[in-house]
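Just curious: can you write whichever protein you like plus the matching structure tokens?

***
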Amino acid sequence: MSQSSHRVATNTALLYLRTVLNIGVQIVATRVLLRSLGVVDFGIFSVVAGVVVLLSFLNAAMTSATQRFLSFHQGRDDLPAQQRVFAASICLHLLLAVAVVLLLLAFSGVVVQHVLHIPVARMEAARFAFVCMSLAVFSTIVVVPFTASINAHEDMMTILTVGITEILLKLVAAFSILWFEADHLKVYACGMAAVAFITNGQCLVHAIRKYPECVFRSVLRPTTQDLKEIGSFAGWNLFGTLSHLGRVQGLAVILNVFFGPAMNAAYGVANQVTGQMNMFSSMMMRAINPQIMKSEGGRDRDRMLDLSVRASKFGLLLLGAVAVPLMFEMPSLLRLWLGHAPVETAMFCNLLLVGLMINQSTTGLQSAVQATGDIKRYEIEVGGILLLNLPIAYVMLRLGAPYYTILISYVGVELAAGLLKLRFALRLAGLRPAAFAANVYGKAMLPIAATALSGATMSGLLRPEGFWGMLLSLACMECVYLTSTYFLALARDERAWMNGFLRQLLGRARREKAIA
């Protein structure tokens, strides 16, 4: 594999390391906070922070837009264009940050007193926490152009360093409430706001010192063209994000109308499971996206398409490595995790995982379309298809269909959206559908099918029971998946890179052993 592919793999590994560390610290911090804050204050902070974090989808859309244009012009080695993009992005984010924070502060009293269910005695502390989190959002929005620049330069070591700093500071913030006599909720809210300012400041200082496009001399004079392009791209990207969120939350409302809160509990758990599974492939896309955009900017369409196809293939393979074995042991895992879960939860989890795997098999096509910059019709049509899931589900349930048909329609809509992505990639980027199907489905489906067959055999013939039986079943399926992936799904150059990577690891381990 090429040097850029090696860099993508290294960056993905660094992002995975950050994710694993973050999950570990969250587990510890949550335990500390529950004991120190108490259930009521912990719930208050969670709901207050949740209201503010709802704005994160807006931030994500803006980050994606800025990174796309920076990476695109890096591919053309056009520094003045990068500086213009940065200047326009700074102006847009300053305006957005001021507007969002003024809106949050103006309605903080209404939200805390009349929207959220908070005990009267804790109302003042909750309002203080709301203000602290609003200020944290301000710093996060303002620093987006700098973090986008770091991502565009694929400086994942800096992202890892900042991430570790953030993780450690969050742990300190959790323990700090034990050191102060003041109101614990206020102390923790101040601590979390300080964490945001410190880590965002790290990104800002690093980007200014290291990247030549991060200059301020033209910030007050952005070009209308750059403002229009970035704003338009972010706006349509935001529409796509809202379509996805609308579909997820809309299905929850429909389930509530027809079946009540018990079914919502099953659906909520299933969404948590798929959210965690999605991280296994989304980290890779974060690492490979800058390369896709740079290739298009450098007028290397063939390389851009090759990277997009590989992204779809490895996104599906990475997700399948975890999702396929879990689907066969889902009831046992849910019992181990939750004790008593609603009976529908396992089926909901498995159907959502199937839909997620279909989505991941075309995730590279979305990046290919975004690299071309022509996303208006793409977002309207793909977003419209996703939202079509809501009336379909409602009509099916109204006609008396069983509860699980709502997620069968979810899988069908994902298939339709995937075909639409393929059509746009063909029309806008010249992707060859036959080559895409052969590389992605023809290769990645082989280990998935082999693992599914082994899982069905384990369940039907051996029927392992208990905790150790579940571990044995998962281990056997994972061995089948990894072996069949290496021999059946990887191309020759991918296997050669994998062999070299493993030799490097073994050589390093031998040297360290010899030194010891």
About this structure: Residues 129 and 189 are 5 Å apart (CA to CA). The chain has a mean pLDDT of 82. The longest helix spans residues 3-53. Residues 1-222 form one domain.
